[in-house]
Amino acid sequence: MGFAFNEIEETIRMVQSEKLDIRTITMGISLRDCTGNSYEEISNKIYDKITKKAENLVKVANDLEAEFGIPIVNKRISVTPIAIVADKLKSKEEFVNVAKTLDAAAKAVGVNFIGGYSALVHKGFTDGDLHLIDSIPEALAATERVCSSVNVATTKAGINMDAVAIMGKIVKKTAMLTKENDGIGAAKLVVFCNAPEDNPFMAGAFHGIGEGECVINVGVSGPGVVFAALSKLDNQADFGQISETIKKTSFKITRAGELIGRLAAKRLNTSFGILDLSLAPTPEIGDSIANILEAMGLSKCGTHGTTAALALLNDAVKKGGVMASSYVGGLSGAFIPVSEDSGMISAVEAGAISLEKLEAMTCVCSVGLDMIAIPGDTPEETISAIIADEMAIGMINKKTTAVRVIPAPGKKVGDHIEFGGLLGHAPIMKVNNFSSEIFVKRGGRIPAPLHSLNN
């Protein structure tokens, strides 16, 4: 694929003035050949393979950043779901030791996160799945760079409500075990419906069982670029013009990601996987999804019209991106994390946006309820019910949805949590106080919708 000089020149301008960056280069590594009968055997194989495959990942990314002047914010690794690799292990303590090995390998090669401490339980559990899920709170408390995800629903299988009930407890316990840092462990844990196998973004990345031995997946980021483009339109521009502007901008952003991804794969002697063209915000002013929606004419993100504006944005981003790359994958759309988006934080603080409105917005965006801080005394059944609602949206709409909520220990509505860096900070949001306990404790599986039989 050739890239014209004027494309590179324009990319440099977007980097300098509009906060364009490559959010992550993520190396996906298969650990299917790292199984064994003891955690020592499994851990040794995992450490050796990760440190060998990814030994030059950070160097190559840094070299590309220097050559092209495009910031590459994160260098990451995703691996085969550990519940599959370590399925023979018999206790959560052994799984925690494997998590520590992942952390050590990530530190050795210099990446900031490693994803794949994961289980796929949308239809049922193996013993290994249950041991891994049980170990998540201790594993995330004992590690710095490990991220975890659990897929509890799909359009084809329905929703595993037993898993949903368990995950409410796991999220709450994970937050409690990291209470000295506002429950940051829960910020590294995602519950999915229809989890993609090639997602480069954390905390939900894992290397799917349908993937090859080793691939490079790239996640771009360009809310600031899209906001700058829309800011040049006057109030007379109609929605067709807005959509066209976003499409053209998304095309340019995607081309930059494609260039970096293919060069990284070539230099690392591996395959280029996909480009995830999700608009991923940061806490920096001007790099916000909420600001984009407000640029369309909303006085504050969350007011009436917000869901329609987000639908337009998400669709236009995808239309522009697929024209720029033949290998678009992952999540690809617009993220609406609260703590990582300065505009979203402002909207919550102003009372313009609620948990219920965020849930409605997830019907049309690329992921789900993301990086939302809730009171630390929120019952685990309520957390499970929040997860169940979001899983239902994904199941019925045949899309990926996810929940990453932080029940901040000791915090109440009106307080704040502070993580720093890309994880940002967030106000504690109000949760509906009416109980969902009986509903959650019914267990079993919510059947798949009729359109799951499409074949």
What does this structure look like?
The chain has 2 domains: 26-193, Alpha-Beta Barrel (Anaerobic Ribonucleotide-triphosphate Reductase Large Chain); 215-441, Anaerobic Ribonucleotide-triphosphate Reductase Large Chain. With 455 residues, it is α/β, with parallel strands linked by helices. The mean pLDDT is 89. The protein has helices at residues 5-18, 39-53, 57-68, 82-85, 92-109, 127-142, 161-177, 223-231, 239-267, 289-295, 306-322, 342-349, 355-361, 380-397, 437-441, and strands at residues 21-29, 72-79, 113-120, 146-154, 158-160, 189-193, 214-221, 271-276, 369-375, 401-408, 416-420, 424-427, 445-446. The two termini are 35 Å apart.
Can you give the mean pLDDT?
Answer: 89
> Under the CATH scheme, which class of the largest domain?
Alpha Beta
Taking pLDDT < 50 over at least 5 consecutive residues as the criterion, the unreliable ranges are none
What percent of residues are in strands? 15-25%
Q: Level of helix content? A: 40-55%
Query: How many strands, what sense, and barrel or not for the largest sheet?
Result: 11 strands, mixed
- Specify the structural class: alpha/beta
Radius of gyration: 21 Å
Output the number of helix runs.
Answer: 15
Domain module tally: 2
User: Topology as H/E string?
Assistant: HEHHEHHEHEEHEEHHEHHHHEHEEEHE
Q: What would CATH call the architecture of the largest domain?
A: Alpha-Beta Barrel
Protein name: UPF0210 protein ACETAC_01620
Subunit structure: Homodimer.
Family: Belongs to the UPF0210 family.
Organism: Aceticella autotrophica
